[in-house]
Every structure is written in structure tokens, then in C-alpha cells.
Write a structure and sequence with these properties.
This protein is an alpha/beta fold. It has helices at 22-33, 47-56, 81-86, 105-114, 131-142, 154-164, 223-230, 239-254, 260-272; strands at 8-14, 37-43, 61-64, 78-79, 91-95, 98-102, 123-127, 146-151, 168-171, 183-186, 211-214, 234-236. The strands form two sheets. The chain has a six-stranded mixed beta sheet, with helices on both faces. It has a six-stranded parallel beta sheet with strand order 9-8-7-10-11-12, with helices on both faces. Bound molecules: 2'-monophosphoadenosine-5'-diphosphate. 2'-monophosphoadenosine-5'-diphosphate is lined by residues 66, 128-133, 151-153, 156, 187-190, 200.
Length: 274
């Protein structure tokens, strides 16, 4: 598709953003459907200025990544219910000048998990209590899971328990409780490059009946997922959250059904060539 004066522009804003795979995934989808769209990445420090600029330029869709997911809420015209409850947005759609913020982190992470396991009535241990955790906790409760949050700082976990009506909050000293859970999800940054040998829990607390999901995707097979595989647990890779979160963004921006296979393949190729 040639870029011309009718090309519609979508983008991702973040800091850093240079590592982002969103442009590759979205552009592959546009190409597959022959859409006159382009998706670019902007390294943004001044969030207010960026949103004002994107609004003035009538940019159609904005993906928001770390660390701007909270701050963007201040500059949009409308925030959907899930993004309000989570307290963060990763998607902004420009509806004829009205900027509407939503959150596909929760749908993306839950879609990825539900491909491998049912969620309703399952006992789920969520490790970490930051922004990513909030999206996942929201999603897990929406799907009827029994949810326990474990965090290094107990106080933060307890606050989340109240806010999201969770079923338990623990410090990491009590991580042996994870053994009785069906699903274990790491939402902390532990294990991310360059600390690739770290895991927030040891192998001894995992077993073959569990599904273990790590939202860290650099590297794809984290130390936690190596432990999970070693004990025969099912694993869910963090890049799937990115992919399943990108599909509804694509649909919101273009109004077309996202070509899953093409976008999944683009992600896989990009990871392989890194
Ligand atoms: P994000 O928004 O990407 O989820 P965040 O808000 O910085 O990131 O949250 C990071 C989470 O990882 C927190 O739950 C943090 O625990 P604390 O609340 O105790 O800070 C957790 N975390 C980060 N580094 C950790 C480590 N080395 N060990 C255990 N937990 C860690």
C-alpha cells in the first residue's frame, strides 16, 4: 500500500518505545487487508503535548504504552468503564475529534489465558500489584475466577484486594500458598532482560496441574516458564497478551476484523529476527 495524502495514521506513544512490536503487528494487518493506513511509533515525554498534537492532527488511533497509561486519562474526552476501574488506558480512538480511552490489556491477557484454560471458578495466584496486575485482576474477576494476589509490598496487595473484591492478599513470604492454585500469573518485571535468570517464585511451588502465565515477553521463555515446563505445567507466553490486545485495537481503529494469522505471524517473525 502506497502512502499518499489519504493515508490514515495510527501510532503508539511510550518511553521507551523503540523496542515496541506494535507497529509491525498493526502494519502487517493493514497490508493484509489492503487498507490505506500506517502505524508509527513516537517516543513521548510530554504526554499532554503529544495528545493535543495528535488530536490537532486528527490521528485516528493511539496505542499507549509504559509509562503513560495512567497520565493519558487526564487528556481524553471519555474513558470507558473498564479503563476507569483499572485506572489506566492503552488505547485511544479518535471519533471525529472526540478522544475515547479504553483498555485492551485486560481483554488481551484474558483471551491469551482462555485459549489454554477455563478461568471461571479457578483458583488464580497473581504475582505483583502494579498497572499490569490491575488489568489482569479486573479481567479475572469479570470471568468469575477466585483470585489471590501476592506482592512484595503487602500493603499494596491488600488495597487491591479491597478495590477488586479479591479472595486473598499475601506478601511474597507466603508464596508457598501458590502450590494449591490452578493458575499462576506473573505480572512483575522479574525475569525481564537483562535479569533473565530471575524468577519471582522457585520451581518447587509449581506442579504439572497448573497453568503458568508470564506477562514478561523479553525473553519469550522466562525463567519462570522454564520452571513451569520442567514440572510439566502448561505455559502461556507474554507475547500473546500483546497480540490479543492488538486485535481489538486494530478493529477499533479500522472498523475491520483483524487478520489474526497475519498479525500473529508478523509478531513471531519479528521476535525471531531480534
Ligand atoms: P507495571 O505497571 O508494568 O505493572 P509497576 O507498576 O512498576 O509495573 O509494578 C511492578 C510490580 O512488580 C509491583 O507489584 C512490584 O512490587 P512492589 O509493589 O513491592 O514494588 C513488583 N516487583 C518489581 N520488582 C520486583 C522484585 N524484584 N521482586 C518482587 N516484586 C517485584
Amino acid at each position: 500500500m502506497k502512502i499518499n495524502s489519504k493515508t490514515k495514521v495510527c501510532c503508539i506513544i511510550g518511553n521507551p518505545v523503540e523496542h515496541s512490536l506494535s507497529p509491525i503487528i498493526h502494519n502487517a494487518g493493514y497490508k493484509a487487508l489492503g487498507l490505506n493506513f500506517v502505524f508509527v511509533a513516537f517516543h513521548v515525554e510530554n504526554v499532554k503535548g503529544a495528545i493535543e498534537g495528535l488530536r490537532a492532527l486528527n490521528v485516528l488511533g493511539i496505542v499507549v504504552t509504559v509509562p503513560h497509561k495512567l497520565e493519558v486519562l487526564k487528556y481524553v474526552d471519555e474513558i470507558d468503564k473498564a479503563a476507569q476501574k483499572i485506572g489506566a488506558a492503552n488505547t485511544i480512538v479518535n471519533h471525529n475529534g472526540k478522544l475515547v480511552a479504553s483498555n485492551t490489556d485486560w481483554t488481551g491477557s484474558l483471551e491469551a489465558l482462555r485459549k489454554v484454560s477455563e478461568v471461571e471458578n479457578k483458583k488464580v495466584a497473581v504475582l505483583g500489584a502494579g498497572g499490569a496486575s490491575r488489568a489482569i485482576l479486573y479481567g479475572l474477576k469479570r470471568y468469575g475466577a477466585t483470585v489471590f494476589v501476592f506482592n512484595r509490598t503487602l500493603d499494596t496487595a491488600q488495597k487491591l484486594m479491597e478495590e477488586f473484591s479479591l479472595d486473598g492478599a499475601y506478601g511474597l513470604e507466603e508464596k508457598e500458598k501458590i502450590q494449591s492454585c490452578d493458575i499462576v500469573i506473573n505480572t512483575t518485571s522479574v525475569g525481564m532482560e537483562p535479569q533473565i535468570n530471575d524468577s519471582v517464585i522457585p520451581q518447587e511451588f509449581l506442579n504439572s496441574h497448573q497453568v503458568v502465565y508470564d506477562i514478561v515477553y523479553t525473553p519469550k521463555v522466562t525463567q519462570l516458564l522454564k520452571f513451569a515446563k520442567a514440572v510439566g505445567a502448561k505455559v502461556v507466553y507474554g507475547d500473546k497478551m500483546l497480540l490479543y490486545g492488538a486485535l481489538p485495537q486494530f478493529e477499533l481503529f479500522t472498523g475491520k476484523k483483524a487478520p489474526y494469522d497475519t498479525m500473529a505471524m508478523a509478531l513471531e517473525n519479528a521476535e525471531r529476527s531480534k
